[in-house]
Amino acid sequence: MTELISIADCFFHGVATETVSPFGDGLINSTYRTTLKNDSKEFVLQKINHHIFKDVDLLQNNIKRITDHIRTKLKEQGETDLDRKTLTLIPAKDGKLYYFDGENYWRMTLLIPKSKTYQAITPEYAYFAGKAFGHFQAMLSDIPEPLGETIPDFHNMEFRLKQFRDAVAQNEAGRLSEVGDLVAEIETRADEMCICEQLYREGKLLKRINHCDTKVNNMLFDEDGKVLCVIDLDTAMPGFVVSDYGDFMRSAGNRGKEDDTNLSKVSFNMEIFKAYTKGYLEEAQNFLTPLEIELLPFGAKLITYMQLTRFLTDYLNGDIYYKINSFTHNLERSRAQLKLLKSIEENYCDMQGFINNLVN
Ligand code: GN1
Ligand code: MG
Question: Which atom of ligand 1 lies at the shortest distance from residue 26's CA?
């Protein structure tokens, strides 16, 4: 705690840190809520996982460019509640966008007052969330130069399958024999799941700035269920729009938890799908291509499948990537994602029909 306080102090001029306590439930970075003596503002301190985000300069510059761009856009649109509608990076005392303590990289942002996160939401909130992500993508559509890839090939399904197949071949943790059924489920869908990369090579599908981690708990809501802003901008980078749409469906559209061990609770919620899609298309229909719109339901399958593949890869590798609560955690996550994937597949025709009706 004293060590964390002295790290937090590296971001503030003339005021002292009072408390630093664990905050949030991210699987990658470590996050702390920070208060100051004699100042009512609160802050969020994060230890950046630099084994995963290897280029911290690029990472922090991306975030600065995104938040500055959004702030300018919001001002142009007449928004006044700016500190609640986008993240505010607090530079370290030396002016850098992070602080390096010789071992770890740290960053600070303003904690958005009177904001809430959810793991599960109602259709009404999903509608606002859909509008918010459509708006987020629209605001970033004219960022001057392409952003860097903070994790190269992050949502590239061909790359994720290669990592998975390497993990199967190496069987590092000796767990392969337990998961034969899951490996088969992944392999039978492998070709179908790589169509975005194929369409991109053929010049039919484009890349846009995406958030690439649009799970529901990366959105802040106000007291009325309206979205304040999108947080966790680490993975914002060029990608396919189906990624962001799909990750929200994977997280908010799941009746159970991402790591539910009670698989009977895990299924796809069509009411959330309908509400989110309606909100999203109200904002995004005018900039999406017909192919992108057609691929939206595929995005829900793709990102759930990708997450299954990534969790199982980590399980096979001996839990080197995601934070875990037990040695079977990544296996439980994989089984829950497979159950959700099957439920999305069952609803797939209805999803396509709903979108066709909306846009025609
Ligand atoms: C990680 O940062 P966090 O915990 O929201 C992961 C996402 C996964 C998610 C699964 C950089 O997100 O890609 O979808 O876990 N982020 C990274 O819950 O790998
Ligand atoms: Mg997060």
Answer: 4
Q: Which atom of ligand 1 is nearest to the CA of 323?
A: 4
Give the Cα separation of 63 and 236 in Å (integer). 8
Ligand 1 atom with minimal separation from the 250 CA:
14
pTM equals: 0.93
pLDDT bin (cut points 50, 70, 90) of residue 289 is: very high
Which among 25, 28, 59, 150 is the best mutation to test ligand 1's pocket, defined by most ligand atoms within 8 Å of the CB? 28
Longest dimension (CA), the chain: 60
CA distance 9 to 213: 30
pLDDT digits (tens, 9 = 90+) for 185-197: 999 999 999 999 9
Beta-carbon neighbour count of residue 26 at 10 Å?
A: 16
Q: Hey, what's the torsion of the CAs at 234, 235, 238, 240, to 10 degrees?
A: -150
Report the pocket of ligand 1 as residue ranges, CB < 6 Å: 26-28, 52, 213, 215, 218, 232, 235, 258, 307
Ligand positioned closest to the Cα atom of 336: 1
Burial code of 142-163, b = ≥16 C-beta within 10 A, e = fewer?
A: ebeeebebbbeebbbbeebbeb
Q: For 264, which DSSP code? A: G
